[in-house]
Each structure stands twice: as C-alpha cells, then as structure tokens.
Amino acid sequence: MITYEFLQNYWWLLISILGAALVFLLFVQGGQTMLISTKNATYKSMIVNSLGRKWELTFTTLVVFGGAFFASFPLFYSTSFGGAYWLWMIILFSFIVQAISYKYRRKEGNIYGTRTYDTLLFINGIIGPVLLGVAVAMMFFGAEFTVSKANILNPQSSAISQWGEGHGIEAIFNFKNMILGFTVLFLARVQATLYFFNNINDKRMHEELMPGFRLNSILFVVFFLAFAALLLTSKGVSCENGTAEWTDYKYLHNFLDMWWVLIVFLIGTLSVLYAIGRTIFTKGFTKGIWYSGIGTALVVMSLFWVAGYNDTAYYPSMLDVESSLTIRNSSSSEFTLTAMSIVSLLVPFVLAYIVYAWYAMDRVKITKKEIEETAAEEKY
Amino acid sequence: MENLVTVVDWSRAQFALTAIYHWLFVPLTLGLGIIIAIMETIYYRTKNEKWLATTKFWMTLFGVNFAIGVATGIILEFEFGTNWSNYSWFVGDIFGAPLAIEGILAFFMESTFIAVMFFGWKKVGPKFHLASTWLTAIGASISALWILVANAWMQNPVGMEFNPDTMRNEMVDFWAIVTSPMAVNKFFHTVLSGWTLAGVFVIGVSSWMLLRKRNANHCYRSMKVGGWIGTIGIVLTLATGDGSAVAVAEHQPMKLAAMEGLYDGSHGQEIVAFGILNHDKKAGDNAEPYLFDISIPYGLSILATHDADAFVPGVNDLINGISFTPEGDTINTVAYAERIARGKAAQQSLEKYHEAKQISDTAAMVAHASELKENFDYFGYGYLNSPEEAVPNIPLTFYTFHAMVILGGYLLLFLVASLLLAYKRELFEKARWSTLFQRLAIITIPIVYLCSICGWVVAEVGRQPWTIQDLMPNCVAISDISAGYVQTTFAIFAVIFTALLAADICIITKQISKKSKDNLDIAK
Which of A60, A95, A325 to mutate to test the interface with B (most CBs of B within 10 A)? Predict the structure, then answer.
C-alpha cells in the first residue's frame, strides 16, 4: 500500500542517494585542489583532462540535488536557501567559476590567463566540499531559523521562514559544521587521488602522488572520527506524536534503533578504509576508487537516514524547536510526490546510460602519449 | 515598508540580471546543438570529411558558449530559494516538480553525452558519437521544456488547489500544467527562437569568413544548414507568437494592454505598428496615449482573438471591470477595486480558518474554507493598495514588444534571403552587393540577440506585479533578507557575469579567427 508516509520516506531515500552521489563526485573538486601544486605540465594536463570529463556530472548532480529537494521538501528549500543566504551564495559563486574554467583555461583569447582559471578551480575545490559539508552538518547540529506560515498574511514581514542575524555566516564559523566540511574536503582529495590512480596510466605519476595521498588519508580519518564522535554524542530533535523536543544522544539512538542503518554505515566506513589501506600497502592497486566510492555512498546515505528517519527532525531549529523540519512537515503533497515518483522510475535508465557512457570513455586510460597527441581543441 | 520595496526591487534586479545573462547563451545552445547534430548526421551518412571539419568548427564554438550557459543556469535555480523563499513554499509543490524532472531527465542527458560529444571521437564508435551529439541537443531542448512549463504556470496557474491547512497551493492535475496552451506556446516559441538565433549566428560568422575570403565551401555548407534551421525557426516562432498572443489575451489581458499601450479598448481594435508613447499618460485620465503612432485597423482584435470585430480591453477597461469572452463578446468582469476587496476577504477567511482550527471549531473551519475558496481567485489582490499597482511598466513592455515584432519581421526577410543566397552561390558571389549583405549578416547577430532578450522582457515585465498571476505579488514572494545583502550579491554577480561574458566573446572571436584560417575541407 503506497501511503503518503511511504512516499515521504521514498523521497528522503532518493534525496539520500543524490546526496551520496554528490559527495562521491566531489572527487572532481578534490582533484582541482591539486592542480596549483602540480608543477609538471604534462601531469597537470593529464589531471585536468581526467577531471574535465567528469566535472559536469558533479555539477549536474548538485543541480538535481537542489531541484529534488525543492520538489519533494519545499519547506527545506525555502527555509535553508532563503535563510542561510551567504552560505549558499558563496557555494554558488564557487560553482559559477568552475563551470567555465575547464573550458576556458587553455583557450586562446581567454583574457585572464590559464593561471587565473586554475586558481578559480582551486577555490571551487576548497569552497565546494567544505561549505557543502557545512550545509549538510546543519542537518545534525541545527540552524538558527523559525517557521511561521501565518506570516504570509502579513505584507510587512511576510517571510514564513526567518533566520538569525548571521544568515548563514554563523553556520560557517560553527566548529562542528566545519569539522564535517573538512572531512568532506579531505575525503574529496583522497578520492581524487584514487580516481587518478584508476583513470591515468602513469606509474611515475602515481608514485609522486602517494605521499600526498597518505597525508590526506590521515587527515580524513582524523576529521571523520571527530565528526563521528560529535554526531554520536550530539542532541537531536525527536518528533513523536506531533511534539518536537531536543533529545540527548538522538543520533546514537537512531543508529541503535535502526540497526540496518548502522550496518550500512559500518560497511561503508570499512570499505573506504579498505580502499585507502590497500592502495597504500599493495603496489599497483588501482581499483581503490570503486571501494572508496561505494563506501562513501553508503556512509552518506546512512547519515541522511539517521538525520531524517525514526521520527527525527532533519533540520533542527536552534531558535524554536517546534519550527524544526521533518520529512513529514516539510514535504510536498501526496499528489506531487506520487507524480514525481512515477517519473523517478526512469532513474535506473538514467543511471544505466551514465554508467555506459562512463565505461565507454574510461575503458582506455589516459596516458602521457594520448595527452601529447590529442589535438588542442579536443582537450582541456 | 521602504526597505521592503528596496529588497523586492533588488531581488528582481538580481533575478533579471541572471536571467538575461543566462538567456544570452541558452538560445545559441538550443539552436546550434541541432545544427551540429544535422552536420554530423550528414558526415555520418556521406563519410565526407569536409562535413566532419565543419561539424568540429561549430562544435568548438558550441562548447565555449555551453559552459557559460551552465554557469548562469545554476544560479537561477537556487535563486528561487535564496531570494524568493516565500514563493518557493507557496508554490513549491507545483513549481518544484518540473524543476526536478528537468534535472533527472534532461540535465543528466546533457552532461553525460556532451563529454562523449567533445572527447569521444576516438573513444567510441561513429554511431555512438552521433547519438551522443543528438542526445546533447535533445537534452538541451528537454531541459527548456520543463523550465518553460514552470514559467508558463506562473503566468497562468492551472492544475492546482489552495490547501488552507498547509497554506500553500498544491498540484491536483499534472497534465493540465504540462499541456496548458500557455506552456505549449511558450515552449515552442522559445525553443524555436533559439533555432532562429543560431541560424543567424551561423550565417553571420560564415559571412565574416566570406568577407575575408576564407573557406568559402565551408561557409556555404554552413549557411545552408544554418539557413534552413533559422528559417524554420523564425517562421514557427512567428506562428507560435500568434498562439502566445491569444493565450495572453485570455489569461493576462493587462499584459496585452501594456504591450500595446492600450488604455481604452474597442471592438475592431487597431494595432500600433509603430508608435511613441505619451509618458505623462496615466490610467484613468483623458490624455492621449501616443505622441505618434502608425496603426493597422482591426490588427489587435485579430491578433488577440482571431476575430476582426472582437472587443479588446485596455488598462482602464480592465481596472473598471470590462472584458470580453473568447468569442469576442463584451462582458463585465470583476473591477480591480473589487478584486482587492475580495482578495483581502480571502486572506481574512484564511486567518479565521486557522483561528477556528486552533479551538477545533469544525463548523467555523468549513465556513471559512468555503469563503476562502469563493474569493481565492483574487487572493493576491489582497496585498495591493490600489488598482494602479496591478498595472505593469507600460513603456518598457510596449517598446520591447514592438522592438521584438519589428526585428522578428526583419529576421524573417533576412533568413529567407540568406537561405536563397546560400543555394545561389554563383549569383551571390558575382553580385556587387554581396559584401554589403555579408556586412548586414554580421550586424544581424547582435540584432537577433536584442530581439530575443526583448521577448523575455515583454513576458516578465508585462506580468508585473505578479510572481504568480493574480495569486502572489513580488512583495510577498521574497526572502527574509536585507536590501544590503542583495545589493552586494547583485554587484558580485554583475562583475562575475560581465567578466565571463567578456572572456566568452574574446574566446569565440579568437577561435573563429584562428580556425577560419585552417583548411575546413579537411578534417584534422
């Protein structure tokens, strides 16, 4: 029986899948942060061309993630985007400059020079993962907003979602949020290296990337453990029987109440650690990106599930607990969720052609020879 | 209140800035995508490498243009949330769905296959590559479909009901939204105008190369394909423009009145082919609306209703409550003063409904819900203080509409002539006026962009003050942010977009200049 609650849960599941795909694909941003420090021109060209064939997937996933949130949980869209104005605007500025940098960086007549575009890619590489991590962290650690739908009848102050003075700046300077932000950043850098190992066939380059990979892996693990500790000891908002209240160790309870989510989380974590460990200790191992990618997707999905399922507010309000957003009080109507669910049946088809196109383009790995022989207009 | 007006104005300015910049690049993507796909199809069928060289030439320009279209597009989507958060809640249940479908069905298609299109020449087979080129072009058009469905819905909200419990509009009929005449006309009118623009672009660039005596064969090949797409585009754009006018007359008569600067309508209403407005004219006074005009008898009645004798209401008629049926019969509609009163009554009913809900007074809830439903069509008017607030900026709407129509007529002549000349190469090359025509073709590139932007200004300024026609004015649709914030982000957007536009133009001109010197009858 497909009920309204089922549809709300289903769309939260789809949001979690899109979120997982986005975090995985942030390896593009992680790779961009390595461009400036790469002095060897051929290596730089191989890195850019390896990333340049994937950046649009990351970009599109971000757009679809936003669109899906708008369609399925519009109250989150209106509250978060309209409230945390600066946080989202900074994220958007960084993505605007990314979109053109790949295409323009080597083109004659680009006015500002290749180095400017590489710097813009670096900025997007840092800001994108860190601030998207901050935005997601607010789903656990709360945000400064209130929701009053009756405001719409007051033309002098009609905004139904109102935010604290910082309008998103305060979220950036919250250390808990930043810890998740840096976790995502170092994960992106780890995955970028794993992706290069898999996509670029150049042993010498692999050796040169290895020290950085080790350092990024250590930093990722440290930040990830810190985030996990904060999450498991953090308060969350329970919304049982229509009443919202802060509950100690809410996310720990959610993991214990939903044991299957805990299993997914642990499998995901172990998979990422396996990818890192095997890449470090087994010479010539290049399949780490797949273990790490699947692991990342599982961890991110499980985090969305503990944030939204089990009568939990996925966007707790630090100013008025009753304003906290749940998948019940912030979703679209049953009709809309049903209509979109029918459309979502096409998602496997979409995934299939993405996988096929990815396979077709990547089955021949990038080599120094290929980059040197490719015509200028057919590479970045 | 003063601050509120400023926030609204700056938010509108920011959205307009983003939309205009976005629309500088999107139509070329829509049309050039199709042109490239046709060229590659010819190459695939003939295996003649001159067509491969021509395809790659235009593909390079497509790629540069595409990137900046993507960059500006992401901002538009998120600005609905950042700057128009109340709007996002009030109609997110309806508006969000097309946006999500656009992402799932179109954006992934574009982003996946564009990588194959640019980098897959040696990595995939020719059939798969050709399919990727077509899928990129089709993906662009599908993405246009969904955002235009969403835009059309804002101009003519259908397929929804207001839910007093959630205090928002909710979708009840998906197909009514997708297939509304406003949506169908808007989609074809907009996408086909992209074909027109791309056709002019290809002819203009080819003409520049002909002037410099470079790659004549490539230029005539390109002009044939571009000429056909452009001509088909402009003919169908004009045809769908006619459909749009009928839909506007029916659902947004105030916009139609503004487009024509019409204050007092009549049966057999003439249309102003060219005119200069009297800027001192106000609704309700006796001043002449035009300082100068050249009009065509019965023109507006025919345009709006396809009936030469039909009544077309002006601004004063609409404010006073006079309108017409689709058959052209004059009827009395609800005067704007009464609309405001009924809008306020609807809002009071909603407030009372929630007061009754708090004390669980079911009978009162039912009564107030019924009152609300009775007056809901005028809900948005309840936010207005006077009927004049419901009148859009007439000079801007009037002049952009007339510029669009006049330039559209010129583009029809230009494209038909270009297509003929592309097939009469010997005649064209010997003619003394050929260089003059080639220069005209270059000048026509900025003209077609101007025409395209004018179309959007008419559509969006003409529907003011409404974010959602009759239901939500701009002043209620905005986010809880200060004017200073929006001024700052506006300035940042203006600087970034302008810098990107400068880079885009420099790269495109440099690429044209450089590649035109290669032999484009041989593929590299």
Answer: A60
Task: Give per-residue pLDDT as tens, A197-249.
Answer: 999 988 888 999 999 999 999 999 999 999 999 999 999 999 988 789 999 99
DSSP per position, A158-176? --SEEE-TTTTHHHHT-HH
**Which residues have a Cβ under 8 Å from the Cβ of A70 and sit 6 or more positions away?**
A77, B77, B80, B81, B88, B92, B95, B96, B99, B100
As separate numbers, helices (DSSP H) first and strands (DSSP E) second, chain A gives: 17, 4
With contact defined as beta carbons under 8 Å apart, do B58 and B65 qualify? no
Q: Which of helix, strand or coil describes residue B169? A: strand
Is there a contact between B479 and A375 if contact means CB atoms under 8 Å apart? no
| Residue B115 neighbours by CB under 8 Å, 6+ apart | A53, A54, A56, A357, A361
Tell me the shortest Cα–Cα distance from B398 to chain A, in angstroms.
30
pLDDT tens sequence across A299-343: 999 999 999 999 999 999 999 999 999 999 999 999 999 999 998
Chain B: closest CA distance from residue A229 (Å): 32
Please list every residue in chain A whose beta carbon sits closer than 8 Å to the beta carbon of residue B75. Answer: 92, 96
B2 and A CB contact within 8 Å: no
C-alpha pair distances (Å), A120 with each of A13, A113, A166, A184: 34, 11, 26, 19
pTM given for the model: 0.91
Residue of B nearest to A347 (CA): B104
Complex confidence, ipTM = 0.91
Q: Classify the phi-psi angles of A57: left when phi > 0, otherwise alpha if psi is within -120 to 50, otherwise beta.
A: alpha
CB pair distance less than 8 Å for A64 and B108: yes
A155–B350 CB contact, under 8 Å: no
Query: What is the domain range of residue A61?
Result: 4-378
Question: Which pLDDT tens digit goes with each residue over B144-203?
Answer: 888 898 899 999 999 999 999 999 999 999 999 999 999 999 999 999 999 999 999 999
Query: How many domains are there within chain A?
Result: 1
